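Lab notes, practical 5.
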Amino acid sequence: MTSDSRAPSDRGFVAPSDRGLVAPSERGLVAPSDRGPAAPSVRPVVAVVGPTAAGKSALSIRLAEVLGGEIINADSMQLYRGMDIGTAKLTPAERHGVPHHVLDIWDVSEPASVAAYQSLARAAIDEIRSRGAVPILVGGSGLYIRAVLEHFEFPGTDPQLRAALEAELASDGPEPLHLRLTRLDPAAAAKILPSNGRRIVRALEVIELTGQPFAAALPDPTPAYESVQIGVDVDTALLDQRIATRVEHMWAAGLVDEVRALADRGLRDGLTASRALGYQQVLAQLDGECSADEAAADTAQGTRRFVRRQRTWFRRDRRIVWLDGADPGLEDVALAAIQAAPTTPAAPAL
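Output from the prediction step:
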């Protein structure tokens, strides 16, 4: 079993007991039975991150039960009301009574806003801490996690400029806009898929508003909270099997009916939600553009590609302590890693 701060592809497994455990009470992470009547202390934020289908949700429930924690969603698609089956959103029964925050906040017709999410998630963290509980941030949306844990200010938006760029996207497609981005900011263009019109539009908007490259809008990491980040991953072959099983379950559990109902509520008009994995493919299926088998296969393939991007994102952060999601003793190893790992101290706001 490995517990270290390297990415899964780099790590060699070592028992966390070799790292020298710190008593939970010394880290401010204590089980509810250990809490005395004293006023609640400020507790580090625990983040559980990693690729889709690696086992983050199940682990986070057990950590919350042991640590006296509450979960804050950091999956960008679970922010949408009614997008349940395709996002593998835990049912109330599966949450085992653990409070969950920042779920089901947007209609499917609304575009995603990392800035709005940041505000909601930080308010949840502060409220959870005020009651002496442990905030547990859980998800695979790297930018959303970074926006919460770090001092991260977002460039504003200009409705007229945004509307003009979106009109150009609708009339000409993403390719001409991506070529423009390549001329203005080659580094940003290299990181954004030529087909991702929404991100291309945002990059061009930021460049126009700030006069700086889009990458300059992403500051160097400056922690906003004391935190411990636990990464959960499994071998690629096993993860591919889990993805295939998950996609099969999604169709069997009624994803097509879920998407059909959401289409009546404006899913096709949602710039973000309509492109979600599974939902985009089922819309194509409903429109007669592909069969159910083709839609499911495309969803699995798209999820595998997404996993590669998630791993690339998280691999850059050397503060993450990576664990094997297939380890039968994952819960105990995670608790030991949380106790042993140095927290990332918060930095003063600038």
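Observations recorded by the TA: Residues 54 and 239 are 7 Å apart (CA to CA). Confidence is low (pLDDT under 50) at residues 1-28, 30-40.
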